[in-house]
Design a protein that fits this description.
The complex is a heterodimer of chains A (114) and B (114). Chain A is mostly beta strands. Chain A has one domain: Sandwich (Immunoglobulin-like), CATH 2.60.40. In chain A, the strands form three sheets. In chain A, strands 2, 5, 6, 10, 11 and 12 form a six-stranded mixed β-sheet that branches. In chain A, strand 5 and strand 6 form a beta hairpin. Chain B has a single domain, classed as Immunoglobulins (Immunoglobulin-like). In chain B, a hairpin with a 5-residue loop joins strand 7 and strand 8. Classes of the chains: A mainly beta (114), B mainly beta (114). Chains A and B meet through strand 6, strand 10 and strand 11 of A and strand 5 and strand 10 of B.
Chain lengths: 114, 114
């Protein structure tokens, strides 16, 4: 069965500093990978996705992620965070051969410190 | 363009009651998925419907059921409510059933079971 592990439940970072949110997945098959953001009292918004091809994926709001198949990781990075990035971030995976559902991690809460 | 809409926004029920949650997908989208998000956790997949047929089902008891109508809107029904059913219920729509297609999430319905 597929699963997603987000290694940090909370990440505090100073404004304008870089940040990395870690994500590892377990799957024996080819996968699609996603990062979603959830602002307080809102639904989920897709930040970026890896479907195939280049392992470096660029998304919205200056975020990027790198797919590393050998380490089964898909870490999210941003070179300089802003107060508006305060939110919950979810890493997620979907089996390419049975692509009816997305499996989400437990989330990482990003705290931006002034 | 209107995004995914869900109704009601909030709902309070007592144990043993039944609840119906509604979702209207983005115009032109033929697939609707339902997720349950318990406080402090990532969303968990409940159902996916595509072209009015169930395409996928998660590990939820038979108390949970859903359907999709000819206009592609959807209902999620939960019978015999338990305290543990308290959660944010998210609906997502996409052009087609595969998770290759971006899923757009609604704001959710927050269900509280007393």
């Amino acid at each position: 069965a597929q699963s997603v592990t987000q290694l940090d439940s909370q990440v505090p970072v100073f404004e304008e500093a870089p940040v990395e949110l870690r994500c590892n997945y377990s799957s024996s098959v080819s996968v699609y990978l996603f990062w979603y953001v959830q602002y307080p009292n809102q639904g989920l918004q897709l930040l970026l996705k890896y479907l195939s091809g280049s392992t470096l994926v660029k998304g919205i709001n200056g975020f990027e992620a790198e797919f590393n198949k050998s380490q089964t990781s898909f870490h999210l990075r941003k070179p300089s965070v802003h107060i508006s990035d305060t939110a919950e971030y979810f890493c997620a995976v979907s089996d390419k051969s049975r692509d009816d559902k997305i499996i989400f991690g437990k989330g990482t809460r990003l705290h931006i410190l002034p | 363009d209107a995004g995914v809409t869900q109704s009601p926004t909030h709902l309070i029920k007592t144990r043993g009651q039944h609840v119906t949650l509604r979702c209207s997908p983005i115009s032109g989208h033929k697939s609707v998925s339902w997720y349950q998000q318990v406080l402090g956790q990532g969303p968990q997949f409940i159902f996916q419907y595509y072209e009015k047929e169930e395409r996928g089902r998660g590990n939820f008891p038979d108390r949970f059921s859903a359907r999709q109508f000819p206009n592609y809107s959807s209902e999620l029904n939960v019978n015999a409510l338990l305290l543990g059913d308290s959660a944010l219920y998210l609906c997502a729509s996409s052009l087609q059933g595969s998770t290759y297609n971006e899923q757009f999430f609604g704001p959710g319905t927050r269900l509280t079971v007393l």
